[in-house]
Amino acid sequence: MKVGILGGGQLARMLSLAGTPLGVDFVFLCQAHDACAATVGEHLHARFDDKQALEQLAAQVDLVTYEFESVPAESVEYLNRQLPVYPPPQALATARDRLHEKTLFNELGVKTAGFVNLTSLEDLQQAVATIGLPAIIKTRTEGYDGKGQQFIRDASELAAAWEALHGVPAIIEAFVPFDREVSIIAARSVSGKMAFYPLTENEHREGILRKSTALANDPMQKLAESYAERLLEHLDYVGVLAIEFFQVGDALLVNEMAPRVHNSGHWTIEGAETSQFENHIRAILDWPLGSTALLGHSVMLNLIGKLPDNRKVLAQPHAHLHLYGKDERPGRKIGHITVCAKDEAAVSKTIRAIGEV
Ligand code: AMP
Prior knowledge:
By secondary structure, this protein is an alpha+beta fold. It has helices at 10-19, 51-60, 73-80, 89-95, 98-107, 121-131, 158-165, 221-234, 268-271, 276-284, 310-314, 344-354; strands at 2-6, 25-30, 42-45, 63-66, 115-118, 135-139, 149-152, 170-174, 180-188, 194-196, 200-205, 208-214, 239-248, 251-258, 297-304, 319-323, 333-341.
């Protein structure tokens, strides 16, 4: 079996690290010279819209998946005319546009913060009258890790905020004073079998995920699973889907979904019986999905911008270091550490010993 992946970053790399023991080979289409997945598969060095490269990929692999949602829709459709592309293109089209995804969530009875599509400054002014302040303007596409967002506290900031968009399609949504942020990682196979991981609590700083904690028997698990199931079924989804929620009281408001393996599921490599990466490969090949059961208490810490002292991390019991082979750069995800142990106190002790990473 040979799987093509659009993208050659750390998610592609971890997919290959999970799929290789199952006898699956990987080809990555990625324009970056220093694609960090290149060491764990074949690197087709080209742009996503390079027809010749897409042909070359299609000729080599059994099916195609992708590691991020900004791949051009035309490239995905072009490939999908020749071989299966999972998750299905309709899921990608929905997930890449905040307006489309939030509209779908509401149609399926999945709650979100109030939002309004913006086409003019008048829209923006009216929207604020409806949803209130503070609020956040978000570009409809290409925004991730807080990029493309403007926080609005006061109506006097609206004209400048509209200017700053330069006509880029955007929505405005109400600021949610959430109790916590959680996400669910779900998988659905070609033949429709589903699996759900235990919820993860996520902590962000400057819009970037810093820490994820796997939650055992969380009271919100059932609700999150029922929302995920609705989306998986509706989209005839295949592969891993991540959904991020704001929890307010006993309600879950969806922030966004990602049609791919997700940073908040990295703890599953050591912390679950089957990792999200392996289950994505199993799902797209229509192999039986693996158990998502917890193996203990798990906390994942992202390494942002700066590499840690390897010796310091590895000297700690229960610490698993993952470096993506990327250079240090401010704000860049270059690795993560998962601390996983049967005993919760042992996890906390290791995290304290590792210190601020
Ligand atoms: P996003 O790019 O939409 O994933 O947003 C990144 C992070 O910004 C989220 O994980 C939240 O911590 C914060 N955030 C985004 N939207 C909202 C909102 N409507 N209310 C409160 N916080 C938000």
